[in-house]
């Protein structure tokens, strides 16, 4: 059942040319150089330190590594992180 | 910008969250829609963040849930600023008093400068000013206007022909022109006396020079009356001619006078109204209510407020509403002619100097049309008609 739904949404995004983040509830990540990273559609903070930020996604997690992290704003579905961003890693995610 | 404003207006707190599950605390905040920003990790069990002071009370259940504690680091924003000010109200009161004092001092008379007057007249002017209330330390707001001061000074101080009154900042400046006492005779250069008007000579009085005309002679404008050339023709001598020659001159005047006219007079009743003018908006301060007069004449005097050297867009306006009364005047033709003659006579007399005399008059023409009287009157005046004209020596 779940697989079938996934297939449908995949098909919809491909044929109807709808943005994938809207249809499939994927995170939308905007980065400005290494300075800012802006993540929409997250599902909560798992871990936050000066060097890393781990966010829960609908499927899997995202891990951001760097230096001098500050959470500039934090809203139900959006996060703005400031600092020096070095890596963005997806964990256990299957798409 | 909007965010910035709201942060400053509603007051924010800087807090420290201590506990093992600080991330849980953050997630709970998000879930409860508590706005939280600038989150920084201090160490493993501790982070700092900012939030609105109004949300602080909502934190308690979340803290219990996440097993955290908070400490306040700092408070920012308008409400806290006000609180601080309130606890230091002396400072605020001092600042206010300071502003008020500066404001009052900016609107005071600090200096009175009188220039162009002899010490005697200067003293008189000072006295007159003091009577009017123009003194050092007075508020300019309640002093008469410059024009009123000027009029009063020229009226009260006889030695003065003209006074220029200027209020420059906090200094009153008076530029005085004194009546000059006629100077003693200066060394005269050779000259003739010539007629400055056409007329008939009635009297000749020669002090120096050669008279060229006799009594009852008719002279034209520019004709030589007393020559400055004396002596024989071979050896002419040039002297400044001196003397007085009275002649009969006529002045033609024309008067128009309506038989019926209306004009306003003041009844002496008046009402004062005060306004504060802020950016052109007149706000009544004193003197409310309707003016009960039918006919009015309004005189406005405006005083600009100053702060240090700047003129504020605020001014103090005093309106004096005088009650006026309309009068209708009706002349019969005879009365109109009489009044016309009188006004024409006054007119001519004003133009003449002190020695001149009106000898006779003749009405040349009177016409009535459309309710107005037109008069043409000739006046015969005896006056000094001599005028100096320098002799230009011809070199042969």
Q: Can you offer a commentary on this structure?
A:
The complex is a heterodimer of chains A (95) and B (396). With 95 residues, chain A is α+β, with helices and mostly antiparallel strands. Chain A is built from two helices and six strands; from the N terminus they run H-H-E-E-E-E-E-E. Chain A has helices at 2-16, 20-24; strands spanning 28-32, 36-40, 45-48, 52-56, 61-75, 78-91. In chain B, 25% of the residues lie in helices and 47% in strands. In chain B, the strands form six sheets. In chain B, strands 11-9-15-21-20 form a five-stranded antiparallel beta sheet. Chain B has a four-stranded antiparallel beta sheet with strand order 2-3-1-4. In chain B, helix 2 runs antiparallel to helix 3 (59-66) and helix 6 crosses helix 7. Classes of the chains: A alpha+beta (95), B alpha+beta (396). The A-B interface holds A 44-50, 69-76 and B 22-23, 26-27, 29-31, 33, 36-41, 44, 47, 49.
